[in-house]
């Protein structure tokens, strides 16, 4: 990407933990014929389970550009060392990098500072609404489309935000964050308005690279890397 350079990457401390989660299992409990006749259950059955989670974090990117241009920013996370505490060869390690976020951005001439919150990363969903709460909302709501867009958006296709980071180890885990900025190469006959997060006529988002960018999934880790030609100013570990 001529004229574009990633000057700095700043990441908050990544902390994972296990928390207790209560799941409403009332609908899964067998009821007698008399109980089935009632409009509401006399009891509420909750199941407690421990789940992986992480503290919210931010990724701050400082990008220098000598022109205004539309671009695609990709953020990856992968391990730095193997089980023997040795640095992993990039061609062996490229299969371990997971794409955390992909988004469009309009660069301006000069320094561009981008701040991405972990909850705002693309196609992530928070905890699903409990069935009991969903039924209460359905009874009182006037616009069903509003419910689908605000509360149920991406629940069939999104990735749980709490699983964004690997569990790691008690003493910590060495990881590498990789960021690359590439020019926006539009796919033919694609409506760019599909990425508008405020639209109310769609109830799910799609990965921007699938719809807009001609680059393959996992780019640039999708093929063998020539180390002598790989590193350019528009990328940074």
Automatic annotation (TrEMBL):
Q: Where is the Hemocyanin C-terminal domain?
A: 1-237
Q: Give me the Gene Ontology terms describing cellular component.
A: extracellular space
Q: Any idea what this protein is called? A: Putative very high density lipoprotein receptor
Keyword tags: Lipoprotein, Receptor
Against PANTHER family, the record matches this protein to: FAT-BODY PROTEIN 1-RELATED, LARVAL STORAGE PROTEIN/PHENOLOXIDASE
């Amino acid at each position: 990407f001529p004229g574009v350079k990633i000057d700095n990457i700043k990441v908050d401390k990544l902390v994972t933990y296990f928390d207790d989660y209560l799941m409403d299992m009332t609908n899964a409990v067998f009821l007698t014929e008399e109980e089935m006749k009632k409009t509401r259950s006399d009891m509420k059955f909750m199941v407690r389970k421990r789940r992986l989670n992480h503290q919210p974090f931010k990724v701050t990117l400082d990008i220098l550009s000598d022109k205004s241009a539309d671009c695609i920013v990709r953020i990856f996370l992968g391990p730095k060392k193997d089980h023997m505490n040795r640095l992993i060869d990039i061609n062996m390690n490229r299969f371990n990098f997971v794409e955390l976020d992909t988004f469009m951005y309009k660069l301006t001439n000069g320094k561009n500072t981008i701040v991405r919150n972990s909850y705002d990363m693309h196609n992530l969903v928070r905890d699903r609404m409990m069935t009991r709460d969903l039924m209460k909302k359905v009874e009182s709501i006037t616009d069903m489309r509003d419910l689908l867009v605000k509360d149920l958006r991406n629940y069939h296709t999104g990735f749980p935000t709490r699983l964004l980071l690997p569990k790691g180890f008690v003493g910590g885990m060495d990881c590498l964050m990789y960021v690359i900025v590439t020019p926006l190469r539009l796919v033919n006959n694609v409506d760019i308005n599909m990425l508008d997060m405020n639209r109310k006529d769609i109830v799910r988002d799609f990965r921007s690279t699938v719809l807009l960018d001609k680059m393959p999934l996992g780019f640039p880790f999708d093929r063998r890397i020539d180390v002598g030609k790989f590193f350019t100013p528009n990328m940074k570990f």
